[in-house]
Amino acid sequence: MEDRARTLTRAAELRAYFEAAGARPVETPVLQPAELLLDLYGEDIRGRAYVTSDALRGEQMLRPDFTVPVVQMHMREGAEPARYTYAGEVFRRQEHDPDRANEFVQVGYEVFDRADAAAADAEVFTRIAGALSGLPLRAATGDIGILKAAVAGLQTTAARKAALMRHIWRPRRFRALLDRYAGRAAVPPARAALLAAADPMAEAGPVIGRRSGAEIVRRIEALRADAAAAPVSDHELLGLETLLAVRETLPFALERLRDVAVDLPQITPAVDLLEARMGALADRGVDVDSLEFEASYGRTSMEYYDGFVFGFYAEGRADLPPVATGGRYDALTRALGDGAEIPAVGGVLRPGLMLALQETGQ
Amino acid sequence: MTLKLGVPSKGRLMDKTFDWFDRHGIRLTRTGSDREYAGSVEGIAGVALVLLSAGEIPRELAAGRIHFGVTGTDLVHEKLPRWEQQVEEIAPLGFGQADLIIAVPRAWVDVDTLDDLDAAAAAFRAEHGFRLRIATKYHRLVREFLTDTGVADYQLVDSQGATEGTVKNETAEAIADITSTGETLRANHLKILSDGLVLRSQATLWRSRVAACEGPDQAALAELLRRIDH
């Protein structure tokens, strides 16, 4: 109980620190409508969030994070630009590791600002870093926006690009798709037989269920079109592979990405943004020469991050979850905005972990 | 105290379990009336028979209320997270074989692999405005399998029975269920995805890692393990 009281005190201090930086404190309900979260995150969220229900409101989830309700609140009533802070419990189902907390306190800082993306990214990163100063942490950074730009600009069909884009956050399937589109993976025999068949529906039997015969025929047409499309070229594939493998301190990473942009010119605006962000971080006193950048960082998180991403990890404590994480989530505001959108970037801290690290350090 | 052995309380699973123990010189019998779940053990001292529903045996093992239990691999994996730490697999019993698989309508000639299912799910969601529904009672196993293999845009809907009928009834587009011969699937115009095997299951004897076992129980445990050649 004492630990919890101290965690809450620390959380209140952190929230006050963000308020002093100009953020408005906000509260959100603990129970969130499950439908919206399921729609955004898919079935995976059920593996991460506690679901409960009543006869009146149907399925509800115990808040797995604050981002979604804060974005909703802002889209509903917020004036621009806006800065918010919050502190409270979030709940995460744990089915594999009993040492991971299923309930913990989070403090967050979110910026909704159209003016200057690089400056807003740097502002959030340095505010979070400032709150963590003195702790033995290692910062990791990345940028999903560069990967998205690379995919969006590939010289291949729109259908292939959409499929790759959909799986940016599932590296294994992304890889499998890429190998297939590049002609590196053999066509499965069943697929080859289907494409060769004069009337693929001949042996189909009765069409049952909601997926109609027309939908099946449309997909076969799509598969035929895909089979006829030229493979993704070797130089694009090599460019993507080099891009995904970039892992350097920020200035060297930038140099490597400029090299990649020779083969994949579509990433140039995203790399320009990275360079502007590096400048904005340096202006705020961040030692960018030693800041790590990893092009694949953030791809396995379930969040909606689609640009700058970062995390702070306890040195030599791979067993601990990150003490802070954050990033840009413009796409989430699009998904929730009902036609509206606003560039947004934010981060969260775990005061409980911060206290634990402070104690082991002493 | 006696060593407690949990066995499915009815049907072929119970009969075959009794036969299996019989072959190892341990005679299990149901006593009393047909409706009474009581049993006796002959041929080994210090062991008591507990008749339970197969679905409850994983939980009883994990709680340490029984020392041994017979139930399917599927139920242990579904109901006990980190099952290796809670129970130990002593012996597969060679019956009750069934596979947990993912099946789709046979008419989906364009869907043969999980890769196809994923693509069909994306198109289905765009067309119908909701995620492709997969009916199952094995939520955890199926979700983890589909997450590992990178399938998106689906949702699991609960089905505790007659799962094969959900597609025709339009409460699901695909199913994840246990099958042994595939007969019911074929009768319901369904086919198994070529890489849609989630888990191979069979009736298995498990030992609880948490059940207290002291004094004479330890001797009974050693004797039981010796008799079944473990």
Automatic annotation (TrEMBL), chain A:
It holds the Pfam family tRNA-synt_His. Residues 14-351 form the Aminoacyl-transfer RNA synthetases class-II family profile domain. Keywords: Glycosyltransferase, Transferase. GO terms for molecular function: glycosyltransferase activity. The keyword Mitochondrion does not apply. Homodimer. This is Histidine--tRNA ligase. NCBIfam families: PRK12295.1-5 (NF008952).
UniProtKB/TrEMBL annotation, chain B:
It comes from the Bacteria. Pfam families: HisG. Coiled coil: none annotated. Pathway: Amino-acid biosynthesis; L-histidine biosynthesis; L-histidine from 5-phospho-alpha-D-ribose 1-diphosphate: step 1/9. GO terms for molecular function: ATP phosphoribosyltransferase activity. Keywords: Amino-acid biosynthesis, Glycosyltransferase, Histidine biosynthesis, Transferase. This is ATP phosphoribosyltransferase. Residues 54-229 form the ATP phosphoribosyltransferase catalytic domain. Signal peptide: none annotated. The lineage of its organism: Bacteria, Pseudomonadati, Pseudomonadota, Alphaproteobacteria, Rhodobacterales. Its EC number is 2.4.2.17. InterPro entries: ATP_PRibTrfase_cat, ATP_PRibTrfase_HisG. NCBIfam families: hisG. It catalyses: 1-(5-phospho-beta-D-ribosyl)-ATP + diphosphate = 5-phospho-alpha-D-ribose 1-diphosphate + ATP. Gene3D superfamilies: Periplasmic binding protein-like II. It is an enzyme of class 2 (transferase). Catalyzes the condensation of ATP and 5-phosphoribose 1-diphosphate to form N'-(5'-phosphoribosyl)-ATP (PR-ATP). Has a crucial role in the pathway because the rate of histidine biosynthesis seems to be controlled primarily by regulation of HisG enzymatic activity.
